[in-house]
Specification:
Blueprint lengths: L1 E20 L5 E20 L5 E6 L10 H13 L6 E6 L10 H16 L5 H10 L5 H6 L2 E5 L4 E4 L7 E5 L7 H10 L8 H9 L3 H6 L2 E2 L2 H7 L2 H11 L4 E4 L6 E5 L2 H14 L3 E5 L3 H4 L2
Parallel strand pairs: 1-8, 3-4
Antiparallel strand pairs: 1-2, 2-4, 2-5, 5-6, 7-10, 7-11, 9-10
Helix pairs in contact: 1-2, 2-3
Bound molecules: 4-diphosphocytidyl-2-C-methyl-D-erythritol 2-phosphate and adenosine-5'-diphosphate.
GO molecular function, one term: ATP binding
EC number: 2.7.1.148
InterPro entries: GHMP_kinase_C_dom, GHMP_kinase_C_sf, GHMP_kinase_N_dom, IspE, Ribosomal_Su5_D2-typ_SF, Ribsml_uS5_D2-typ_fold_subgr
Length: about 290
């Protein structure tokens, strides 16, 4: 038996633009993605018998093949032609579910990376990303992590310089948001404001965190906020507590604010946590910090 553990980090979207729709229903996107400190712990053990077993601690998510981590293990075996000698996976779930934070994608990414290591298949990052894309558009980013420009359907990735450290307050209201439903709603939505992705990339390259905060923009925010007023309310609270900028992440409903001063970040976190238990004080993570 061999065992290894990895941190599976959540992501936020510093910008998110939807630029087109493909015939298969998927959308072209242009977004700056950022790994954050909040993470699940994923442990994989191989040589445990003859089947795949999953257990999820800290969440009532299903542990069968509807779980993206389970599907990642199945796909790894079929893609590599590895006979199953028993895989046991344990996920310690800390990332809020269906939150716009890529919780499922990052667990799947961690499983692929761990199995590549435990089975000595040496697929490397590029091949793992190709396999990961079959599980979901955000999985390739989660395999690599850090700060990236994501285009295509999210899989055409360009590494960006590390963003200067700021304090991130993250808040998920107790609402379920369906990613496909938000993508569908975007098709008929009038988009009033789009992110300036080039300016965001320049601000990141210049290490200017105030400018980064000013340029935060997500075209999905008005769509999700139109269905759930909590989104704007939380962003408003983050700003009134001193955030340099605050937006929704992904299709939502999580929102985050960027703070320069740790005491203001802590106060914002305390204020929001009193109403929303899924509130976190976290930070940006570089690719080196998410490397497993
Ligand atoms: C919106 C984003 C922004 O980072 O994040 P989340 O809100 O999920 O965190 C992503 O594009 C979500 O990516 P991910 O959640 O991996 O998507 P998938 O599982 O591949 O697809 C779920 C569904 O979303 C829609 N989808 C997804 C990605 C994309 N570029 N275009 C789409 O139209 C499709 O309807 C698809 O069936
Ligand atoms: N390991 C997993 N962790 C979280 N969600 C999962 C997982 N496997 C499958 N899912 C399902 O994926 C859907 C999206 O959840 P998640 O990946 O957390 O959010 P998002 O796509 O908004 O970033 C949910 O409906 C959830 O039930």
């Amino acid at each position: 038996m061999k065992q290894a553990t990895a941190e599976a980090h959540a992501k936020i979207n510093l910008t998110l633009d939807v630029t087109g729709k493909r015939s298969n229903g998927y959308h072209d996107v242009c977004m700056v993605m950022q790994s954050i400190g909040l993470h699940d712990m994923v442990t994989a053990c191989v040589g445990t018998g003859s089947c795949i077993r999953l257990s999820v601690e800290g969440s009532d998510l299903p542990a069968d093949n509807s779980n993206l981590a389970y599907r990642a293990a199945e796909l790894f075996l079929s893609e590599t032609g590895t006979p199953c000698d028993g895989i046991s996976i344990v996920i310690e779930k800390n990332i809020p579910v269906a939150a716009g934070l890529a919780g499922g994608s990052t667990d799947a990414a961690a499983v692929l990376v761990l199995l590549d290591e435990l089975y000595d298949t040496h697929l490397g990052e590029k091949k793992l990303m190709e396999i990961g894309l079959k599980l979901g558009a955000d999985v390739p980013f989660c395999i690599s992590g850090g700060t990236m420009l994501a285009e295509g359907i999210g899989e055409v990735l360009t590494r960006l310089p590390d963003v200067p450290q700021t304090h991130v307050v993250l808040c998920k209201p107790p609402i379920a948001v369906s990613t496909p439903a938000i993508y569908r709603a975007i098709d008929s939505a009038e988009i009033a404001e789009r992110p300036d992705t080039q300016a965001m990339c320049a601000a990141i390259a210049a290490g200017d965190c105030f400018r980064v905060a000013q340029l935060l923009c997500n075209v999905m925010q008005p769509v999700t906020a139109g269905m759930h007023p909590e989104v704007e309310a939380i962003c408003g609270t983050l700003r009134s507590c001193g955030a340099m900028g605050a937006i929704m992440s992904g299709s939502g409903p999580s929102n985050f604010g960027l703070f320069e001063k740790p005491e203001e970040a802590q106060a914002a976190c305390d204020t929001l946590a009193a109403q929303y238990p899924e509130t976190y004080l976290t930070n940006f993570c570089t690719a080196a910090q998410v490397k497993r």
